[in-house]
């Protein structure tokens, strides 16, 4: 199966019919360049300079290694909160899901290259239901700070 990719070219972000079809058929939409290199640098700086790293905890991968994770439920007033609230993210999610969205949580995954553990693919909806999300109408927005390849711990 080939992955359908889309490229953000700047300006107002518009979810095209092709993006909607990819989401409906594949369960995801890959949009490259949604954030500029400068914006990604601001995100990375905020993560490295902020209090986030003090809240890191390990998640065992079953092979003796750990992935590192930080999780928070309320978007702050910093750069990460601005990402969660920005029109490109919120508007895009609303257009793909077909209605109003809200922030459930933000998760930062840290996987040191070559030594970090795997974050095993899994289905979240089982526990989301127990947390009051009665339908699986949820969206994950994945923003890679570093290039993700098999050479630096990416699973595929």
UniProtKB/TrEMBL annotation:
Domain of life: Eukaryota
Cofactor(s) needed for function: Fe cation
Stored InterPro entries: Phytyl_CoA_dOase-like
Segment forming the signal sequence: none
PANTHER family attached to this UniProt entry: PHYTANOYL-COA DIOXYGENASE DOMAIN CONTAINING 1 (PTHR20883), PHYTANOYL-COA HYDROXYLASE (PTHR20883:SF51)
Name this polypeptide is given: Phytanoyl-CoA dioxygenase family protein
Species per Swiss-Prot/TrEMBL record: Dreissena polymorpha (Zebra mussel)
Lineage: Eukaryota, Metazoa, Spiralia, Lophotrochozoa, Mollusca
């Amino acid at each position: 199966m080939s992955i359908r990719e889309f490229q953000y070219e700047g300006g107002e972000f518009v979810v095209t019919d092709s993006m909607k079809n990819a989401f409906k058929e594949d369960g995801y939409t890959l949009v490259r360049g949604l954030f500029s290199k400068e914006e990604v640098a601001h995100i990375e700086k905020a993560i490295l300079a902020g209090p986030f790293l003090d809240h890191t905890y390990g998640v065992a991968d079953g092979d003796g290694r750990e992935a590192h994770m930080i999780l928070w439920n309320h978007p702050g007033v910093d750069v990460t909160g601005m990402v969660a609230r920005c029109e490109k993210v919120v508007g895009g999610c609303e257009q793909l899901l077909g209605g109003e969205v809200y922030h459930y949580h933000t998760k930062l995954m840290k996987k040191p290259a070559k030594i970090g553990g795997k974050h095993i693919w899994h289905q979240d909806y089982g526990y989301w239901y127990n947390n009051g999300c009665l339908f699986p109408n949820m969206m994950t927005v994945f923003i890679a700070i570093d290039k993700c390849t098999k050479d630096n711990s990416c699973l595929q």
